[in-house]
Amino acid sequence: MNSKKRSRDDDVKRYESKYIRMVKAIFKVCKRQAVPLYSSRFSRKDFTLWQHIALLALMQRIRKSYREYVRDFLAVTERLLDVLGLSKLPHFTTIEKFLLRVPGTLLERVMGGFIGLTGIRKQVFGPDASGFSPHRASHYYVLRTKKDILSSMRSQVRRKERSER
What we know:
Elements: H1 2-15, H2 18-32, H3 49-62, H4 66-73, H5 78-84, H6 92-101, H7 104-118, H8 139-145, H9 149-164
Helix pairs in contact: 2-3, 2-5, 2-7, 4-6
């Protein structure tokens, strides 16, 4: 009887979405790091800090804009909303405003705990904090930073060729 129960639990975990597993791991990290549910006792209490952090992490994982993330992804994932404990969908500006007001140290604590929990060995990050690789830079970003990605790649190849001679 006990072995049947264990195998059934394993099947449930196996079929669980990777996003649901990610949310559960983030909640576990928030609990371990003693992250409070609300930043103040005067908070509106619509969404908890844990939910905001999980929503932000999922948005970065899926690589969508705030608006696309809420409209296209969250609107169709009922199971994920149940795991998050959301009774209503947040407006896309809710996540953006949370990111502007949350202390960076809180996100660093949670991210460090998540990396420790999951055992991630490699981290990929963009130096411009967008999370995207420089090869996917938008035309506007290239113009704004006055960098031409292809020319910088070409110059790196030329330098490497010179050093090999």
